[in-house]
Amino acid sequence: MTLRSRCLMLAAALGLSLALAPAAAAQDPRLEARVDGRTRAQLAPILDSARRAGLPLEPLIDKALEGDSKGAPRQRIVAAVRALAGTLGVARDALGRGASEPEIVAAADAIEAGIPPRQVEVLRHLLLSRPITVPLAVLADLVARGVPPDTAAYAVLNLARVQAADAQFVGLRIDVERDIGSGIAPATAIAVRSEASVRDVETRRAESRSAVPGQETPPTP
Amino acid sequence: MSDFDGEAEFIESVARELRAPVVLTPALDERVMSDVRGAPYGASDGAPRRRFWLVRPVTLRVSPLGGLLAAAGIAAVAVLGTMAAGGGGDGGATAAVAATPAPAIRELPTVAPVANATGPQQVSFVFLAPEASNVSLVGEFNDWDAAATPLARVDARGVWTVTLPLRPGRYLYMFVVDGTEWAPDPAAPVAPDDGFGVPNSVVTVGGRST
Question: What is the pTM of this model?
């Protein structure tokens, strides 16, 4: 076999795999088992486009399965999957190219909840050196509990500014949930708890600094 | 000599007396031991005879294989006990509680703040549906498959429940009553529009994600 024919065969194989890739995205066994062929055909270009953009496919497949399970008509399923793909793209853009799939999904949840993408971007920059899946999930949860999106964002960004740990974000969410459960208005609960959480983070940090020899906290003026 | 000096001398003389070794005659040891040997064993303090076997040392002869089997059995019991307790420790069970048509339980789906846990946690879902014939749980954790996670009716008042392991994360879910009626969890947060006009409930399993 000549070098030219080898190159031709390689190019043909590459072309074939590229041509079949869109179909492969829509050929998830779960979709094949539960979603009718016409819906799958309409989902295929959306899934293919998402795959090429580097977006996570699992939430999109899950959305299609959810729609099918709820008995939604085909056009509604396709529209819901398309809308989610758009949100995932916005989330990924807000997070930057290095974002992990869980981060993209969590950011999309937060954006769907009403958090402006710009706030997601700010959160990313405040916590550059670590995953921000947990703070994003807390953000979406707070809004789901009835905290206004801008207030929730303000609280989470304040915690991020003092480099709070994931457990402290989760703690804020639990405290607010508990307060709301006991009858306190969501906006009041987040206002009180947010301030307390920030103080707690700063206090703990000061204590840990003073526990290390040579790193005493500077005296308060 | 002052009063203080006199007092110090008195204390010193008492201390000298106390420090002096007590000389016991060899006959004392023998007398005590003969009394001990003569006492009725196991009932000398008047305790019931039944207690005797509880305090008697017992020698067990176990082959290496038998020892391994016994250790495996103990470990299995410990694991089953932990699972029955809902994971225990920081990863305690999460309860997502729902009710229909009128919720009688209004507990929040609280989640333990397990900052370093990445493994699955036992999450319990409870639903009140006195008239229902069957109830199932559908959500992102089971591909929204209404046949995948049925709830079990646990009492005559119509309390349905199921517990399943979930990895830390945020999940959307709903209940399906009698295969047709989709019901959100009234005690849980509601996610924004799902695109299909049926709002989902949200449960967040605490932990550090990536």
Answer: 0.65
CA distance B176 to chain A (A): 10
Chain B residue whose CA is closest to A66: B144
- Here the contacts of B160-163 (C-beta below 8 Å, separation 24 or greater) are B160/B126, B160/B127, B160/B128, B160/B129, B160/B132, B160/B135, B161/B124, B161/B125, B161/B126, B161/B127, B162/B124, B162/B125, B162/B137, B163/B86, B163/B93, B163/B122, B163/B123, B163/B124, B163/B125
What is the least distance, in Å, from the CA of B41 to any CA of chain A?
58
- In A, which residues are within 8 Å of B106 by CB distance? 181
Provide the residue count of chain A.
Answer: 221
Which of A186-190, B6-10, B52-56, B201-205 is least confident?
B52-56
Structure tokens at A53: 């953009």
Residues B137/B124, Cβ–Cβ less than 8 Å:
no
CB burial of residue B90 (10 Å; 0-12, 13-18, 19+): middle
Residues 6+ apart with CB under 8 A from A82: A46
Burial class (CB in 10 A: 0-12, 13-18, 19+), A47: buried
H or E stretch including B57? none
The DSSP bridge pattern shows strands B94-99 and B121-128 to be parallel
A contacts of B97 (beta carbons < 8 Å): none
Give the number of other Cβ atoms within 10 Å of residue B166's Cβ. Answer: 21
DSSP 8-state class, residue B146: T
Give the dihedral sign, CA B17/B21/B23/B24.
Answer: positive
Q: Give the pairing type, strands B169-177 and B159-166.
A: unpaired
Task: Tell me if A166 and B208 make a contact (CB, 8 A cut-off).
Answer: yes
pLDDT tens per residue, range A147-159:
999 999 999 999 9
pLDDT in tens, A158-201: 999 999 999 999 999 999 999 999 999 999 999 999 999 999 89
**Which of B182, B189, B209 minimises the CB distance to A70?**
B182
Instruction: Name the interface residues of B facing A (CB cutoff 8 Å).
Output: 106-108, 110-111, 113, 115, 138, 140, 143-146, 169-170, 172, 182, 189-196, 198, 202, 204, 206, 208-210
A212: amino acid identity, one letter: V
